[in-house]
């Protein structure tokens, strides 16, 4: 099959009117994710408002604020859900991805079975903010405005994360006293020092609280494995000002109000709460705000 031609970048850049590529428009307008746009174009399902079939996601489409383009999916006009953000307690074993060729359970399937709050929106459009690996569990944010919320993950913002970690064997006193988790081991792996606090232990394992301000791939597992410890459980209990309380695995709670101002996503609201030390407790029956209480005191 002949390869489809790509748009001429020089012609696109010299276009007198502003606009975006198709996948960017789909994401920007809250109609879906860029990945969804690629799937729709690949399957021949996406067209412009006049019915013209979209040939590739890099196709440039003109538009201005207040005069955005219209898209059709299966010839039906796509309309955006209002901006929404949810806190989800990801169960262990669930993949943070839309689909899995191997048939493993994905986060989209888990949300579909959740007994959490329903708003009438298309839950399949929700995308995760950041990642949790398959063997990890706990708090993750989901949104239909992923292109905006992923800015929170910029390392320069030092967006805090907190985890409960169970390691085996039981933590050696020498390693604890030498502070290897936040010093030598981290430096050898090219990681920033982490905040490690003791929680409880038995003869075989130790539970710890670990705080990060930059979430690199498998950072906590790599850190403990480098010291000869096996991570048995890794549960994210804090993400920014959000603190996981009694929300059960698979539970989902809407937290949109903490991100919205006049119907638009405003990240400064969340960043100000972090600066003030406010905690948003995510519970089974909703959320509770505790002003000025640090997550480490919970």
Protein architecture, described:
With 298 residues, the protein is an alpha+beta fold. The protein contains nine helices and 18 strands. α2 crosses α3. It is elongated, with a radius of gyration of 22 Å. Mean pLDDT is 83; it is low at 1-16 and 294-298. Residues 85-225 form the Pseudouridine synthase RsuA/RluA-like domain. One of its GO terms (molecular function) is pseudouridine synthase activity. Keywords: Isomerase, RNA-binding.
What's this entry about, in short?
With 298 residues, this protein is an alpha+beta fold. 20% of the residues lie in helices and 28% in strands.
Give the CATH architecture of the largest domain.
2-Layer Sandwich
What fold name stands as the CATH topology of the largest domain?
Answer: Alpha-Beta Plaits
Instruction: Pick out the low-confidence regions.
Output: 1-16, 294-298
**Secondary-structure element order, N to C:** HEHHEEEEEHEEHEHHEEHEEEEEHEE
- The number of distinct structural domains comes to 3
- Note the total helix count: 9
CATH class of the largest domain: Alpha Beta
Corresponding CATH superfamily of the largest domain: Pseudouridine synthase I, catalytic domain, N-terminal subdomain
Helix content: 10-25%
Strand content: 25-35%
What is the CA-based Rg, rounded?
Answer: 22 Å
Write down the overall mean pLDDT. Answer: 83
The number of strands is: 18
The structure class reads alpha+beta
């Amino acid at each position: 099959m002949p390869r489809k031609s790509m748009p001429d970048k020089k012609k696109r850049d010299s276009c007198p009117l502003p606009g975006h590529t198709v996948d960017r428009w789909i994401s920007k307008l809250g109609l879906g994710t860029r990945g969804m746009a690629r799937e729709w174009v690949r399957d021949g399902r996406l067209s412009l408002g006049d019915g013209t079939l979209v040939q590739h996601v890099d196709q440039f489409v003109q538009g201005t604020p207040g005069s955005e383009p219209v898209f059709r999916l299966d010839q039906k006009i796509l309309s955006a859900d209002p901006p929404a953000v949810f806190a989800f307690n990801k169960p262990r074993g669930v993949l943070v991805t839309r689909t899995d060729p191997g048939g493993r359970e994905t986060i989209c399937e888990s949300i579909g079975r959740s007994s959490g709050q329903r708003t009438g929106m298309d839950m399949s459009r929700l995308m995760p903010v950041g990642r949790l690996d398959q063997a990890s569990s706990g708090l993750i944010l989901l949104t239909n405005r992923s292109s905006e919320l992923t800015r929170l993950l910029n390392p320069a913002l030092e967006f805090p994360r907190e985890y409960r970690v169970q390691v085996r064997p039981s933590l050696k006193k020498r390693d604890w006293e030498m502070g290897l988790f936040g010093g030598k081991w981290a430096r050898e792996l090219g990681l920033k020092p982490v905040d490690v606090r003791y929680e409880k232990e038995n003869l075989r394992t130790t539970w710890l609280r670990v705080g990060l301000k930059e979430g690199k791939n498998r950072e906590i597992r790599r850190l403990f494995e480098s010291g000869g410890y096996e991570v048995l459980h890794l549960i994210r209990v804090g993400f920014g000002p959000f603190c996981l309380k009694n929300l059960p695995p698979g539970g989902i709670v809407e937290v949109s109000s903490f991100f919205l101002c006049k119907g638009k996503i405003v990240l400064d609201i969340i960043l100000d709460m972090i600066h003030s030390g406010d905690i948003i407790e995510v519970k089974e029956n909703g959320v509770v705000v505790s002003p000025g209480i640090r997550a480490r005191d919970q």
